[in-house]
Amino acid sequence: MIAIAQPATDTGSTAARILDAAESLFAEHGFAGTAVRDIAARCDLNPASLYNHFDSKQALYEAVLARGLAPLIDVLRRSAQSEPGPLPADRMIDDVMAVLARTPNVPRLIQQEAVSGGTHLARLVQRWIRPLLAEGVAAARRETAQGWEDDEVPLMILAWMNLVFGPFALAPLLAEVLGVDPLAPSALDRQIRFLKKLARRLRAPDASPRPAHRGSTRRSPR
After folding, report:
1. pTM score, two decimals?
2. How many domains does the chain have?
3. For residue 200, what are the CA distances in angstroms to 139, 188, 203, 211?
4. Domain containing 98: what range?
5. Per the domain annotation, does 64 fall within a domain?
6. Tens digit of pLDDT for each residue in 40-78?
7. In a domain, 184, yes or no
8. Within a 13 Å sphere around the CA of 211, how many CA atoms are in the beta-carbon half?
């Protein structure tokens, strides 16, 4: 089995260590399947000392989501307010991937809630996923992508979210399929290059031929 890279823990911050441990365990087992004592044990703490930093398991769960998703919303908001063009789009991709590299288990946590239909799914969607989608749509419309109908833009952003979150959410699967750690720095660099290339292709004018209307006939050249 290929080892999956984990974020470097800030040993100088107990709160950061707790957040790292909680992020990993919530991603593996979901909110209901994760006990505070398990989080504390992974940090070499006792549960009582953990409560010095977070009032409850719910508060810790919310802090994990805020640490991973609030910066993504900020990145998309800045992109929506910037001038359109390839350089701001490249910078947005760099910034999004940098956030996810720091909190790589958050996409798996989201996937865990989505697959299980956990009790936190509705709040997760309302508090984080819808704002992410809204800011992404605003950024895409700012880019004035050609060839997209207005109601297709949200679908395009959802597809982008799957592309960006996928290597993190499916890291164990991809490691077995590809034989390499998809979260290794070299693999993430390759993914970033691919996403930038794809973004440029999607921004290009649609030069594909329009299908002929059914029943239309072409005149043969004389």
Report:
1. 0.82
2. 1
3. 14, 18, 5, 24
4. 57-203
5. yes
6. 999 999 999 999 999 999 999 999 999 999 999 999 999
7. yes
8. 3
